[in-house]
Amino acid sequence: MSVSSHISRRKFVKIMGVAGTATTVPALFPIKALSESSKAKPEDFYNIPMKGNARLLHITDVHGQLNPVYFREPNVNLGVGDAYGRPPHVVGKKLLTKMALKPNSPEAYAYTYLNFENVAKIYGKTGGFAHIKTLLDRLRKQAGGKQNTLTIDGGDLWQGSGTALWTRGVDMVEASNIMGLDVMVGHWEFTYKEEEVLSNVALFKGDFIGQNVRVKEDAIMSDEYPAMVERYDGSGLYDEDSGHAFRPYVIKEINGARICIIGQAFPRTANANPQEFFPDWSFGLREDDMIELVNTIRTEEKPDAIVLLSHNGMDVDIKMAQNVPGLNAVFGGHTHDGMPKPVEVKNVAGGTCLVTNAGSNGKYIGVMDFDIQKGKIKSMNYQMLPIISDWLPADKEMAAYIKQMRQTKYSDKIVESRSKQYFYNKSRVGKTYEEILNEKLAIADRLLYRRGNFMGTWDQVLCNALRHEYKADVSMSAGVRWGTTTLEGDWITMEDVMTQCAITYGETYVSEMSGHDLLRILEGVADNLFDPDPYLQSGGDMVRIGGLDYTINPDKPIYERITEARLDNGHLIEPKEMYKVAGWASVNRTPEGRLMWDVVHDYIISQRSKDNVLRLPKINHPKLVGVSKNPGIADYPGELG
Description:
Elements: H1 9-15, H2 31-36, E1 54-59, H3 92-98, H4 106-111, H5 116-123, H6 129-142, E2 149-153, H7 162-167, H8 170-179, E3 183-184, H9 194-203, E4 207-208, E5 214-215, H10 217-220, H11 224-231, E6 249-254, E7 257-264, H12 269-272, E8 281-282, H13 287-301, E9 305-310, H14 314-323, E10 329-332, E11 343-346, E12 352-357, E13 364-373, E14 376-386, H15 396-405, H16 433-437, E15 440-444, H17 457-470, E16 474-477, E17 491-493, H18 494-501, E18 508-514, H19 515-530, E19 544-546, E20 548-552, E21 562-567, E22 578-584, H20 596-607, E23 613-614, E24 623-624
Parallel strand pairs: 1-2, 2-3, 3-4, 7-9, 9-10, 10-12, 15-23, 16-22, 20-24
Antiparallel strand pairs: 1-13, 5-8, 6-7, 11-12, 13-14, 15-17, 16-19, 18-22, 20-21
Helix pairs in contact: 8-15, 17-20, 18-20
């Protein structure tokens, strides 16, 4: 069901229109306290003079986070094959050394997990669209005006929050328009229905591009698909001759320089997400098509620079930059890698390409200045800026929009489930989004985080909730990289839960599974993560397993990586024995269990103590072997179990 069934999109835009002014978000800690601890903002921290004549500003993987958040970077990000020890597969102190960053600095807080619990209380939250807008406007002014800049987004913008789910991404589209976003690509955007995606693209004032998203032949030959596209002003959405579902690229003139931006959506969308949401579209890496497209653009369009706006993931981007001559830079997303410096790549023709990735959750802005003279690139200068929210005043227009949008009332016509059952929670009907999301559930007994190759503490909460709901032996939760961080001692709110769970296919399930099949699932996911060829990797992290411990050697081949798999009670997993396994977010079928956020909500409340604390008795960290010298593992590997 589209959002228009309970409120028209144009009416939504109208009521979300900004009226009056809004106050800035209050600082988590007073400026005086920051100064006393020598953590006040360096005077020139956000002063980036233009080095050239065209500036590209890059954000990616915001995942619906309109307000500032905490987000802890990984303590495990293992690289294999050619990626061993190469950014982004360097963490902690090793990353600081590699990137020439100072310990105990704002950059150390932004780019590493080091002492996160304590340092987060000093620097506060990061990101937030009102603060991003302020910084973007400042960077545009430093470049001589918006006309000298282009703002681009690497996808995963419309998913990851309660409000994004309930408005079908419209909240993020409107915020993007206020922010001045010029070009974007997609991944989780495609997990809304095709008609909702097309409606959002029509509402978006910028360009939604993707050279590797094609309309399937049977859809091209039908009457229904072209008619659906036309309902949303199909200009740039559909090319019957080439089969592109969206424009493959755009060329923008910036301060006299002609820069081509090619779009690359997540190539494995049809494997990673349910195809029922995009029955008429196909995806793929399409490297040969990319090579041909770059050659055609160079020959016929003659731009001054060609950049790739990508949702491949950084390792895939590096390989593609090597294989595709003619690319000057790659602005990457998907793998959430906060990389303060680009990776310089030599391509097969001897040229150079800079590969970047701008992290996630609105935590960073990548700034690349091009000095283009007489059609030639004289220099490219890149810097990534952490967005420390307390250091930037909130943009009044954006803050007012967000505040007003969150006052929208939850309707009983919002469909949260794709299953035959209608699972809206009646207790939410009539409440504002703000009221629903601010509900306090319990106090965290430790830092709750998700990001990392293996089990995170937020993942443990999700897995425990599934086991509790279904009285299961084992639970599984996908190793996705979105989901914010909750500090020890802070209240876990419903908003925190939604950042971990808010997807359009959040139904839960339970099934009987043999030990053989369970272990094969673990091996298959591990291979997606640790195959030496980046083109065969999924770009996510290891599936999270609750109620079970195992040993893994990432350097082994498939079906030899996982050993010593045991239930929490010590029972060794037997191939022929059957186990009760709970899970959620099924790609291949539509379960009919309760929605994940309701399961987690009820679990947290049922398990909190009399003093309102949620305690985790155990974390199912796997035991890692063969990785002690890998620079992609924490400086204190003992914490991994």
